[in-house]
Amino acid sequence: MASGDLAGRVALVTGGGRGIGKAISLALATDGADVAVNYRRDKDAADETVGEIEALGRRAVALAGSVDVLEDVQAVASAAVDALGPIDILVNNAGIASRGKSVADTDPDEVERVVRTHAIGPHWMCAALLPGMRTRARGDIVFISSNATRNMMANSAPYNMGKTAMEALAMTLAKEERPNGIHVNVVAPGLVRTEMGRRLVKSWGQDIDKIDPAMPYGHVCRPEDVADVVRWLVSEGARYVNGERIHVDAGGQ
C-alpha cells in the first residue's frame, strides 16, 4: 500500500521511533508526509527511523521529549513546527504499560504516571498544535488506544484508566474540532508484536514468537497492521470519518 495521498502534509508521531510508532511514521512517509518522530529515551532508534524516512525522499526530524512533562510537550510541538512547518497530522501513540497489580497493591505514583502518559500528555499536545492545525485545509488527530478499554482486564487499572481517559479526550475533540475541518479518531489494537507485547506474553509464561498458530489469521498483530489503519484514517478515503474507534484485534482477543 503506497500513494502520494499525503504529499504536502506534515505529521508528528509521539513514540514514533519504535514499534507501532515506527510503523506509523514509515507508513505516513511512504504515503507522502514529512514526519516529526518524537521519542523519550531511545535516540538511536529514532535516528534510525528518521534515516529510513529520509531514504523515502521525505523530510524528517527526531525530537526528544517525554509526553508526561508539559514543558517537553510544548518544546516538541514547537520544534516540530520550526523544523517541518505546520502540523496537520498528529498521532498520539506514546504509551507505557502498568505493572499488572491489583488496585489494592498498585503504587499511587504508577497510577498518576500511566494516566498522565496516556491521557494528560496527549491533551497537552493537542492543545499546543490545534491552533496551527485549524489553519490547514484538513487536520487529523489519531489516538492509539487499546482493546483494554473493551475488556477491562483485572490487574490493569492504571492502563485501563489511562486509555479510557484518552478515548474520552478523542471523542470530545471530534465534536469540538469538526467545524474546523479536523478529523479525530481512535485506533485500538489488541496484542501487537512489539517489545511491550513481548514482555506481556512472557509474563504469561509464553514466547510471542511461538504463538502465531493460535492467533486469528495465523499470526500476532503486527505494527504494520495498526499503521495501515492509521494511514487510511488520515487519507482522502476517510474524508467523512470522524469520532470513530476502530479495533485492530481480529474481532476480539
Summarize, please:
With 253 residues, this protein is of the alpha/beta class. Helices cover 44% and strands 15% of the residues.
Helices and strands, with pairings:
Blueprint: E1 10-13, H1 19-30, E2 34-39, H2 43-55, E3 60-64, H3 70-84, E4 89-92, H4 108-133, E5 139-144, H5 148-151, H6 157-177, E6 182-189, H7 195-203, H8 223-233, E7 245-248
Parallel strand pairs: 1-2, 1-4, 2-3, 4-5, 5-6, 6-7
Helix pairs in contact: 1-2, 1-8, 3-4, 4-6
Overview of the structural elements:
With 253 residues, the chain is α/β, with parallel strands linked by helices. Helices cover 44% and strands 15% of the residues. It has eight helices and seven strands. Strands 3-2-1-4-5-6-7 form a seven-stranded parallel beta sheet, with helices on both faces. Helix 4 (108-133) links the parallel strand 4 and strand 5 (139-144). Helix 3 (70-84) packs parallel to helix 4 (108-133). The longest helix has 26 residues, at 108-133. The radius of gyration is 17 Å and the shape is globular. The mean pLDDT is 95.
